[in-house]
Inverse folding.
């Protein structure tokens, strides 16, 4: 022990929480807090052990088991005889059973992708959301009218695609969740993801946290802000963490957190720039004295700078602070709040009054363990306060222990250790049995060989017998001795079978498999999870169900990571608002985030004007994706959705929303199919009606045509009859006219004949008269002259000749 300084740690109570704010800000108050934390965790009991290093040792042992590097001393003690292992020639290497299962769990956690969703919850965002929803509702109500206008006038008055307009309130709610995304929410998500990327959260911090939860049963991360690095996220080793008693898995009821760090003496200048050389020398002595007080700490450090390392306790302590405000009433009836110090105590009047608000605050401190050197004690700047409860303040440390009960933490590795030890012992005993197993031998009866006569006079010695046996497998022997007596050694060579080691090896292998199955049973990591020995006869569905059950067994580890990520994202969201509102480099911070998406730069600058709710959207695992894909394929096969619908559903990462969208798409498709069916029925009914009308009309037209044809026939017949009559009349008239003409001609002929007859008569008469006169004259002349008698008959006129025909009788 160093003579100059002496480490003395006692259990001391915490200072009064009801002290004034001025007292809480003093270094004496901070030193009291630090010594109280130090007493709870580093005070040694009668066995010279303390809570911190006991926890550190337990966590170190669990980590060794998770790496397959646990000490082999316990196995040597188990196999040693009176402490002597000189006769054991064994390979003491550890069988890495636990590392395999740890890797399966941790790597499985890393495969589960998630996304951070921010939902704005301030009044302005709520009003914008309501306006957007009202616009959609207007489109829903006016859809029939707008569709009619579009169909009849060709004017598209829809403000959104017609096929995307929700039909019901459930579809509207789903549409708002999937489609509505204001710029401020995109900017907030981008800001959070940018901080995660800058701090390598998914690549470094989150895997380390998952490994700790699997191995130790607890994990911690820390968020902080400094003007140089901005918002920082750091992994915290649970073995170095101290905290107040808690019964909550997320440590939300703790009122102090701390972290033990071994730092080089030169790092103290960065913590306390005004530190003196004398203080440094004394602190260095306390560092050496600390390792003398706790020798176990020396085995967990690098000896290179062991003489210049000191142990510091970084701690946060939660208490309350009274914030005093001057509340002034203005002439226009408004009010103004002005911040005052705690001593402000005016007399009450109608103009102004004192207004007190008690809020939680966190103090930040650093102490050199084992000493009274308090290097830092001040109230934390940029404390994270939820918008819904500003009197509360989140701690910089975020932890989660999924299997915590009354301060005791259980881990997956802790469950496996007893059976992993038995597997290791079984493996060593199997080596021991294998080392003692001897090959099968040969028994040679020399007396039997002496009685064998080869018949050629040669001797039959054991060497010849062995050569003959090993080369041909044959043995020469005699049933009777040379004296004729029965030879008891008639088979001089016999094989000695030594199979006693095989039974032991089979028993040890069975024991090995038993303990391996016990590990699977207590952890839930079955064969289907690691695919080590899949059953070839098992159905695919059975194997997937077994793998799903295994994932369920380790779901608490996944939930631990998601819970910490969500809480961390919430704190980062509030820190972003503080940086953009109060920090001197808010422009640089906004540009740093906006460089990934320049279109949201203005929204990033206005993030502090909004409040957000942070949610974690876990992407479905392969089993859940397969179930969703099966539902999609069934819906596609039954023609319940289209290919475009399937693509939209696959793009939704939230499994619940994806299933809801699938329901909506199916319902929409069914409604459209029903509408099409109804339209087809209407078209069919209209077609049938039109067909019937056309048939009736055709029949009427046929009847009308027939009636018309009949009437036309009758008309034609009538016309023909009339024409006939007319023709007959005309013919009759013509005939009558002809007849009349004929009659007239005949009459004329008759008349002419009469005239001609009369004319002829007259002519004949005249002729006769002429003749008579001529005759008379001749007679007179004859009488006078006394000539002979005249013959009055003409020789040329006594017959009818060419001078007379019937043309004179033709009608005129």
């Amino acid at each position: 022990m160093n003579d100059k300084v002496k480490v003395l740690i006692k259990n001391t109570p915490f200072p009064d929480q009801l002290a004034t704010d001025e007292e809480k800000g003093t270094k004496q108050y901070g030193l009291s807090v630090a010594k109280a934390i130090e007493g709870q965790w580093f005070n040694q009991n009668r066995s010279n052990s303390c809570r911190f290093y006991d926890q550190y040792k337990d966590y170190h042992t669990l980590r060794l088991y998770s790496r397959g590097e646990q000490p082999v001393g316990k196995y040597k003690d188990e196999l040693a005889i009176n402490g002597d292992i000189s006769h054991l020639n064994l390979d003491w290497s550890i069988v890495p059973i636990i590392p395999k299962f740890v890797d399966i769990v941790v790597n499985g956690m890393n495969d589960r992708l998630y996304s951070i969703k921010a939902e704005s919850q301030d009044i302005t965002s709520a009003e914008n959301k309501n306006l957007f929803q009202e616009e959609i509702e207007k489109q829903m109500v006016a859809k029939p009218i707008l569709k009619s206008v579009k169909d009849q006038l060709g004017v598209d008055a829809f403000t959104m695609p017609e096929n995307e307009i929700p039909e019901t309130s459930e579809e509207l709610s789903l549409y708002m969740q999937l489609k509505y995304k204001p710029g401020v929410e995109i900017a907030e998500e981008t800001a959070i993801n940018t901080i995660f990327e800058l701090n390598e959260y998914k690549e470094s911090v989150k895997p380390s946290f998952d490994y700790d939860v699997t191995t130790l049963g607890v994990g911690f991360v820390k968020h902080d802000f400094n003007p140089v690095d901005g918002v920082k996220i750091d992994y915290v080793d649970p073995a170095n963490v101290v905290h107040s008693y808690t019964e909550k898995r997320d440590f939300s009821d703790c009122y102090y957190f701390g972290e033990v760090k071994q730092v080089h003496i030169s790092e103290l200048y960065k913590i306390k720039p005004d530190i003196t050389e004398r203080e440094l020398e004394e602190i260095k002595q306390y560092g050496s004295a600390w390792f003398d007080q706790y020798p176990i700490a020396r085995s967990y450090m690098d000896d290179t700078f062991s003489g210049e390392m000191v142990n510091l306790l970084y701690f946060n302590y939660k208490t309350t602070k009274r914030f005093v405000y001057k509340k002034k009433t203005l002439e226009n009836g408004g009010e103004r709040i002005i911040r005052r110090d705690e001593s402000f105590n005016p007399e009450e009047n109608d103009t102004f009054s004192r207004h007190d608000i008690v809020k939680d605050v966190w103090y930040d401190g650093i102490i050199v363990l084992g000493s009274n050197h308090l290097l830092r004690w001040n109230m934390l700047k940029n404390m994270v306060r939820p918008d819904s409860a500003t009197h509360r303040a989140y701690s910089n440390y975020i932890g989660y222990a999924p299997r915590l009960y009354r301060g005791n933490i259980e881990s997956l590795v802790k469950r496996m250790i007893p059976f992993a030890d038995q597997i290791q012992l079984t493996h060593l005993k199997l080596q021991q049995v294998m080392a003692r197993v001897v090959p099968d031998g040969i028994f040679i009866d020399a007396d039997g060989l002496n009685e064998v006569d080869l018949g050629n006079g040669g001797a039959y010695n054991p060497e010849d017998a062995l050569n003959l046996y090993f080369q041909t497998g044959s043995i020469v022997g005699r049933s009777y001795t040379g004296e004729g007596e029965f030879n008891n050694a008639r088979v001089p060579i016999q094989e000695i079978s030594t199979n006693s080691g095989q039974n032991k090896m089979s028993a040890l292998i069975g024991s090995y498999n038993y303990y391996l199955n016990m590990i699977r049973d207590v952890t839930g990591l079955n064969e289907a999870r690691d695919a080590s020995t899949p059953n070839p006869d098992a159905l695919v569905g059975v194997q997937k169900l077994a793998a799903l059950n295994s994932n369920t067994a380790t779901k608490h580890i996944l939930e631990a990571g998601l819970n910490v990520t969500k809480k961390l994202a919430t704190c980062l969201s509030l820190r972003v608002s503080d940086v953009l509102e109060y920090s001197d480099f808010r422009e640089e911070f906004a540009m740093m985030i906006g460089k990934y998406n320049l279109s949201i730069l203005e929204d990033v600058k206005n993030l502090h004007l909004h409040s957000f709710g942070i949610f974690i959207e876990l992407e479905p695992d392969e089993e859940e994706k397969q179930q969703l894909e099966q539902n999609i394929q069934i819906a596609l096969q039954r023609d319940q959705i289209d290919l475009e619908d399937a693509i939209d559903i696959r793009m939704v990462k939230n499994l619940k929303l994806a299933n809801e969208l699938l329901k909506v798409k199916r319902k929409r498709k069914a409604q459209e199919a029903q509408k099409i069916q109804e339209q087809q029925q209407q078209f069919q009914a209209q077609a049938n009606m039109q067909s019937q009308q056309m048939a009736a009309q055709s029949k009427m037209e046929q009847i009308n045509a027939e009636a018309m044809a009949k009437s036309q026939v009758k008309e034609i017949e009538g016309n023909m009859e009339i024409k006939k009559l007319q023709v007959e009349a005309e013919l009759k008239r013509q005939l009558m006219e002809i007849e009349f003409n004929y009659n007239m001609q005949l009459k004329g002929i008759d008349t002419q004949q009469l005239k001609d007859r009369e004319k002829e008569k007259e002519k004949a008469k005249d002729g006769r008269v002429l003749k008579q006169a001529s005759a008379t004259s001749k007679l007179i002349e004859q009488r006078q002259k006394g000539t002979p008698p005249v013959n009055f008959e003409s020789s040329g006129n006594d017959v009818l000749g060419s001078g007379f025909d019937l043309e004179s009788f033709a009608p005129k």
User: Anything to note?
Assistant: Residues 579 and 585 are 8 Å apart (CA to CA).
